[in-house]
Amino acid sequence: MQRFWPILSVILIASGQAIAQDAAQRGWELESKGDAAGARELLQRSAANAPNDFRAQLAYAEFLDRHRDPGARSAYSKALDLPGADRKSVAHRLAMLDLLAGDRTSAAKHLEIYRAA
Fold first, then answer.
1. Residue 28 burial (CB count, 10 A)
2. Cα(28)–Cα(11) distance, rounded to whole angstroms?
3. What percentage of the chain has pLDDT greater than the value 90?
4. Residue 60: what are its φ and ψ, rounded to 5°?
5. pLDDT > 70: what percent of the chain?
6. Total-model pTM
7. CA 61, CA 67: separation in Å to the nearest integer?
8. Alpha-carbon dihedral of residues 111, 112, 115, 117, nearest 10 degrees?
9. Alpha-carbon torsion 99, 104, 106, 110, what sign?
10. With contact defined as beta carbons under 8 Å apart, do 80 and 98 qualify?
């Protein structure tokens, strides 16, 4: 049984990524049809159900960002340190949002992460 755990882990990770991509796609479709509330609910639920899935967290953060929701900074911050994260682009966007919020300390921190990536 132990020899099957690595295979099972890969399958579960791959299926989790597919679910996150599917939720992001469905969220985009709802949003483009004018159902922003439905898209938000779907993406928020997807992010809550997959707290360690970069794609799910990023889809939710980008939705909040598009709608100028102040929770976007927090959502991007959750995504920043997850496995598979595109640290450079997330840190860059966080730095921009930090500056817009007048938070120079966080902006400097995120710019340093951006440069390091």
1. 16
2. 26
3. 71
4. -70, -45
5. 82
6. 0.78
7. 10
8. -110
9. positive
10. no
**Non-local CB neighbours of 70 within 8 Å, separated by 6+ positions:** 101
Length of the chain: 117
The residue-averaged pLDDT of 78-105 equals 96
- What span, in angstroms and rounded, lies between the C-alpha atoms of 73 and 35? 23
Residue-wise DSSP of the chain:
-GGGHHHHHHHHHHHHHHHHHHHHHHHHHHHHTT-HHHHHHHHHHHHHH-TT-HHHHHHHHHHHHHTT-TTHHHHHHHHHTSTT--HHHHHHHHHHHHHHTT-HHHHHHHHHHHHH-
107 Cβ neighbours under 8 A, 6+ residues apart: 95, 98, 99
pLDDT bucket at 8, cuts 50 / 70 / 90: very low
Dmax over CA atoms of the chain, in Å, equals 54
| C-alpha span between 77 and 91 (Å, rounded) | 8
